[in-house]
Amino acid sequence: MITKIQSRDKCGEHFEQPSRHFLTPGEALSNMLEVELAFGGQIVMLTPTKITLVTYVLDCEDHATYEGPIGEMESLCQLSVTILQGERQFKGVIIEGAWHSMEQTFGMKVGKPLLMKMLAGIAFGRSRLRAAVLLSAGISNEDDVGLAVESKVSLKDLAACADLARQSGMPFREALALV
Question: Which of 171, 132, 168 is nearest to 149 (CA)?
Fold first, then answer.
C-alpha cells in the first residue's frame, strides 16, 4: 500500500492532516493526477519510494507526500518523470496553452491579478498533463503538443487519440480530428 500524508501552510502556520490515507498503486496514481497535478501541483521531491508535491491555492500551500515500496511507486515515479521531462521540453507551449485556456475557458484577459492567481495553477496543470500524455505516447512534435494543450477534448479522449496515433502510425492531428 502507498501512504498519502497531507499538510497545509496558511499565513505562516503549519497544519498537519490528522489522518494518513492508504491507497493501492492505481488509487494513488489517480489521486495524484486528479487532485494534485490537475490543479497545478509541483513535484518538489522525487525518489523511488517517495514523491512530494506542493499545490498553491490562494494563500495556502498544500503538501502531499506519497510513500511506498519501490514496486508500488513505479507508476507514480514514471508519471512524475514524464511530467518533469514535458515541462522542460515544452515549457513555452505549456505556458502559452495555459494562457489560452484561461482566456477561452474563463473569458478573462490579462489584468485581473486575483482571478489569475486563483486559476493559473489549474490552467498550467491542465496544459502540463496534456503535454505529458503525448510525451508518454512517444509524440514529441511541438505542433502536436500545442494542439493537445489547446484542445477541448477530455484527458481520457486525448490519451486515446495519442495511443491511436502511436499504434497506427496515423498523424496525431488526424487522430485528434476523429474525436
Answer: 132
